[in-house]
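Shipment paperwork, digital attachment
Item: protein structure file
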Amino acid sequence: MELKEIIRCLQNMRETSVIAPIPFRGEGDCQQLIEEINTLIMEEERKAKMVHQLISSGMWTMHFNHQGEITKVVWSQEFRFMLGYENRMDFPDRLDSWTELLHPEDRESTLEAYWHAVKCGGKYDVIYRLKTRYQGYRWFHAIGETLRWEKGNPRLFTGVFIDITREKEQKENIQARLEMQEQLNEMSHELEMNNEILNALCEDYNSIYIVNLDTGKYDIYRMTDTLPKTVSEISFTNQIYDVAISQYIERWVSENDAGFVRYMTERKRLKRLVRETGRVSFRYCIKERADRQRHFEFCFCDISKTLDETVVVMGARNIDALMDEKEDSRRETLEQVQETLAGSQTGLWSLLWEEGKAPVMHGDRTLHKLMGIPEEELSFNCFRDWVSGIDEKYRGEVMEVLKRSIANGFQEIVYPCSYGKKEQMYFRLGVSSKKNFPGSGYRLSGYWQDVTDTVKDKQDREELLKEALQEAQQANKVKTEFLSHMSHDIRTPINGILGLLTIAENEEEDISRQKECRRKIRQSAEHLLSLVNDVLDLSRLESGKQTRVEETFDIHEVLDHCMSILLPQAQLQQIKIQDRREEIGYARLRGCPLQLRQILINIIGNAIKYNKECGSVGNF
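Attachment content:
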C-alpha cells in the first residue's frame, strides 16, 4: 500500500464513526498485520451491533461542507432492519429516505427540531412516528448533537434512534382505560339521574311535601301508612320546614350522615341549588329500626312559576332494594376489574383532599398487595402507608405531582419505593383530579403500576450503552495518540526524502550524485515503511505493551542510515554534523535497530531543528 493511501485511510478512521476494514494491496508480513486489524475492527462492529439490538436502536451520521450543505448521509444497518429494510438499495443513504417516512402529524415539528439543531445548535431530542415497510407506523425517540466548523456552520450531525413503540402503547392503553372508566362513570351517573326522574314520576314516595323555600312553610301532599308514627307527628305538628327537618334529622338520621343532611337541606343553599339545576337529590342512612330499613333518599324538584318565590316538591323514599342491587353490581364489576388489574400489576386508588383535613386515601386489594399489606390488615385509609414507602428523595416530587394534577389535569411519575421486607421497587403513578363533592377541596383518583422489571431493564440497557460509549471514547483516544506518534515519527524521513529530491534537482548533471541521492532516498523510504509497519500494530497500542524484536546489527550502518536521512536537512540549514565514530569501541550490537534509529533520528533531528544558524551537531 502506498504512503498516501495509508494516511488517507487513517484520517478516515479518525473523522468518521463508521469503522470499515482497511484495504491492502501489498505483500509480505504486512498482509498478516492488516488482517489482524480488520479482525479487531469487525469484532468492535459486532459489539456495537449487539448493543443496538439489546436496546432496539440505530444510528445516523450526516456530513456537511464548510458552507453548511449536506455532502453525505449514513443510516446504520440496525436502523434499516427496524424499519423492515434490508440494504442500501431498499433504503438509500439519503435524507429523504427518512423524511418521506415521517407521520404527517409529526412531520412539521420533527423537521423544525432537526433544522433548529443543525442551523442554530443545541441538543436534538424528539419523539415521532416513522412508517415501516410492513408493520405500519412505529414510535421512535431520536437524540443527536451537531459538531461545527470554526465559523459555526454544521460539520457533523450524528445521533441514535430508540424504538419506544412498546412503552408508548402501554402508556396509551393505561390512559385509554382511565378515560373509558371516567366515561363509564359519567354515563352511569347520567343513567342514574334519568332513572331517578322516572322514579319521581311513577313510583310512590313514602311522603311528598310542597315547600316554599322563601317563607319556610310546607304542605303535606302525600304520606303513606308505612311511615313511623313519630315521622307523621313531626310533619303534622309544626309545618315549619326548618323546625321539622331539624327534628327529623335528630330523631332518624344516622350520626355519620347527620351533618351532611343538615348541610344539604339548609334553605338558602337548597334554594340556590334548585334554581341552578332544577333538581337536587341525595342519599343518606337512617338509624337502625325494627323493619331494618336503612337507606333513604331526599329529592327536591323546582316547581316555581315565577322568579319571586322558590317552591319545590320534596319527596322521601326508601331505596334499600336499589342500593342492594347497585352494591351487587358494583361488587361484581369490582371483582372483574381487580382480576384484570392484578394481572397487569396495577392498582386503583382515590384520595379525598379537603382543606384543613388530613388526606383520606382508599385503595383496592391489588394496591394493598403491591404494598405488601396482608389482607387481614387492609385499611380504608392507606395514605400514610403509601407515603412511608416512597424513597425520601422522591417524596416531595411525588406530592408536587399530586398538586399539579389539580391545576393541570392528568400527571404521571415513576419513582422508587420499598414496603415491608420487599426489595426496592419502582411504581408508575398516574393521577387526575375532579372537584365533585361539596365543600372546599379536591378528589383525586388514579393508578399505581409495578414497573420494576421495566425500569431495571432500562437501567441495564443504559449501562450497556454507557459501557459501549466508554469503549468508543477509549478507542478514539488510542487512535488520536496513534496518529500523533505516527505523524511525528514519519515527518523526519519525509523531510529527508524531500531534501534529497531538492539536491537531485539542483545537480542533475552529476550522475554519481544522482545515484547517491537515490540510494539514500531508498534507505529513507525503507525506514519509513518500517515505521508504518511498526505503528500499525494496533493490538500492541491497545494493550500498552511494546513488542521487542532483537537481532544483531552494526552501529555504523545505523548511523549511516540516520545520516542519509538527516544530512540533507542539516545542509539546507547550514549546520555542520561532526562525526566522531572512532570513539565507538564495539560496532556489532544486539537489539532493535529500528527503535535505535528512531531514537537517534529524533535526538539528532531536534538538535538540527533547534540549532543556531551555521551551528554544529556532535555525532559520536
